[in-house]
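User: I'll paste a sequence; please echo it back and then give the predicted structure.

Assistant: Echoing your sequence first, then the prediction.
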Amino acid sequence: MQVAHKIIAKCTYKCNLHLLVVVKIGAEFIIKAVQNSMEVIEMQPEIDYVKIGQRIKAARLERGYSQAELGTLVGCSNNHMSHVEVGQTKVSLPMLLKLSLVLEKSFDYFLLDTPYAKCESIINNEIADKLNQCSAATLVTVSKILDALIDQQKMLLAKD
C-alpha cells in the first residue's frame, strides 16, 4: 500500500488548524486536518463531480432528453449541461435540485457513487436491482460474501 502526503493549504482559523494533508491510499484520497496538538481530524472526501455528471447523463438519456432540451428545462445552456455531465463544471446545489425534479430522480440518486449517499438509497437503487437479476445459487453466494464482509467490518471497528 503506497501512501503519499502532500500539504495543500495552511490555515489560520480560530480552531488552530495548521494544515490540511491529503493522503492517497490506492485510488482514494483522504483529507486530514492537523491541529497544534498533532491530533488528526478526519474530514469527508470531496464530492466526485464526474460521477455525479455520469448519473445526470444517464438520467437524461433515460428520459430521452438532449442536453439542449434538459438545459432549457433547468435554465442553462447545452454547453453548461455538457460540462456538468463530464465533471468539468461543478453542479450547484440549486441546479442539482432542478435536475432531480425534471429528471424525476431522488436527490440521493445523484450521490449514489459518493460517500454522501444514504445506505438505504444504495441498497434500494443499486443493490436490489442487481440482486433481482441473480439466480438462487448466486444469492446464496452473495449472502455468504456479505457475511464475511460484515465480520471483517466488525473486526476493524473493534480495533478502533
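The chain has three domains: 3-43, 49-117, 121-159. The beta strands are 3-10, 17-25, 28-35, 40-43.
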